[in-house]
Design goal:
Alpha-lytic protease prodomain-like; 4 strands; Alpha-Beta Plaits; 2 domains; 10% strand
């Protein structure tokens, strides 16, 4: 399934879950269920944001954006993290009001069953988004899926609070459990923002991928002497690599170009690297340390 279709699906799922949770609150009057519904409004907003970001990121490079629009997805992921934090603050506000004026709940069992249906839908869709987001290397879809996971955790915590309140008659448990879940949501939102900012800051690829890049270069650079000043960064689904390749002084331009083409082809096929820039240098540019020594 394409990222665009998944993003559109998130919008419809978000509206369906929001409707069910709002119904659950209306049936019970539970502050915790109201808080759960409030978070679902964020799901709808972030689903729209993810769709816009994915559509922008998919646009080809142009004169104003010669390296493409890949980072648009990171902006969406940051927005989702901020929206999660906002939802947590709204939940804390509602929980405080419920703490000040605790009240008995109406039809708690029926309301919980409706809320359970919404939770199951969210859980299944979160799995779809995260698995497909990782497959398509889409930060926006992964962030949207992780957001739904926090929503599932919220719903579970809310259900526990409502059940305990009903069983004990301590209605104050309803807002207390909602507050605890809100704190967990705050932490989840911060993690999403932190991970997304690393992409906006041109963070290098993982150590595992860097080792694979070294292996590919070493195996495909026959005829070159060394590679140095290797740099990497990732932007959404795109991976950028650039490095200097030292060749013997007698190497012709054609031969050097053939070596570069061979390395580029292997990197793109093996690691699905999007953009590669290789600067060819003569042998007197070789470095004594910190370079990948190649076999001639």
């Amino acid at each position: 399934m394409s990222t665009i279709k998944l993003a559109i699906g998130s919008i419809f799922i978000g509206f369906a879950v929001l409707g069910l949770k709002t119904l659950a609150y209306w049936m019970t009057g539970s502050v915790a269920l109201l808080s759960d519904a409030l978070e679902s409004t964020v799901n709808v907003a972030t689903a729209f944001a993810a769709l816009i970001a994915i559509r922008v990121a998919a646009k080809p490079a142009d004169a104003d954006h010669p390296y493409g629009h890949h980072k648009a997805e990171f902006f969406s992921a940051v927005l989702e993290g901020v929206m999660i934090i906002l939802a947590a603050l709204l939940i804390l506000r509602e929980a405080f009001q419920g703490f000040m004026t605790p009240a008995a709940l109406d039809a708690p069992v029926e309301g919980l069953l409706v809320n359970l249906g919404a939770t199951v839908i969210n859980g299944l869709w979160a799995w779809v988004l995260i698995s497909n987001g990782r497959k398509h290397k889409s930060p926006a879809l992964v962030a949207d899926g992780k957001h739904l996971v926090t929503d599932v955790l919220t719903s579970i915590g809310v259900a526990v609070g409502v059940l305990l309140a009903v069983a004990t008659g301590w209605w104050i448990l309803d807002p207390i459990l909602a507050s605890l879940v809100a704190v967990n949501i705050l932490w989840s939102g911060w993690k999403i923002v932190r991970e997304s900012l690393s992409g906006l800051m041109d963070e290098a690829v993982s150590e595992t991928m860097m080792n694979r890049i070294h292996e590919v270069i070493a195996s495909e650079a026959n005829g070159a002497m060394e590679a140095h000043d290797l740099r990497t960064r990732h932007a959404g689904s795109a991976i950028f690599i650039d490095f200097h390749l030292v060749v013997p002084g007698e190497t012709t331009v054609f031969e050097a170009h053939e070596i570069c083409d061979r390395i580029e082809k292997a990197l793109k096929e093996t690691l699905e690297v999007t953009h590669i820039a290789i600067h060819v240098e003569p042998e007197h540019k070789a470095k004594e340390s910190g370079a990948l020594i190649l076999d001639l």
